[in-house]
Amino acid sequence: MTRYADLRKPLRAGIVIVDPERGTPQRVIVLQFNPDSLERSLAPQAAGADQGDRTEALRLKGPAVETWKFTAEIDATDQLDVPAPSGIHPQLADLETLVHPPSGRLRANQALAAAGTLEITPIESPLTLFVWGTQRVIPVRLTELTITEEAFDADLNPIRASVGVGMRVLSVNDLPAGHRGSELYLAHLSQKERFVGAAGGGRLESLGLRGV
User: Fold this and answer.
1) Phi-psi region of 127 (alpha: psi -120 to 50; beta: other; left: phi over 0)
2) Between the CA of residue 29 and those of 33, 69, 96, 120, 175, what are the distances in Å?
3) Do 62 and 42 meet the contact criterion of CB atoms below 8 Å apart?
4) What is the pTM of this model?
5) Model confidence at 118: pLDDT above 70
6) pLDDT attached to residue 71
């Protein structure tokens, strides 16, 4: 008879913010609940697809553009360490600040603009990794956050929310060669290729064919 204590505790999914040079984690966001579903979309990068060049029909000019989507649930009633005065504001802010530049950098840019600086370099964000188990650790850029606040306390602090998260996987086409994120993407792609080898091959006979 299997006891509940003998059951393996599932891993938690989450997001890790990494210093791209040192590789040290700066922030770790652990999702309160693992999403029930994960939507992935891959768009091939075919060479000459728009021009109709027949000599390019089978060529790929780079990795597929891959996007991931999921919905995160945040509920203060199941999270005992949420401070009552703030509801789930801290948990929401943890995700929202991933798509905003730091306020200090924005103020510094405003000061540069006021001083007459002709060109202000866009603010570079840290490397963002999405972790879905030990075999899928991928560099991403968040493309969308859709927050639906579903319940509130007496002070109108949110205490339950659903957060739709959209991400684009960063490939070697997006990052410089040798960048830590680029190396993680190549490791991600290599893992897929190892999975293909483990799947085994089919037989033409199963498709009703003797040859092609």
Assistant:
1) beta
2) 12, 17, 12, 30, 23
3) no
4) 0.83
5) no
6) 97
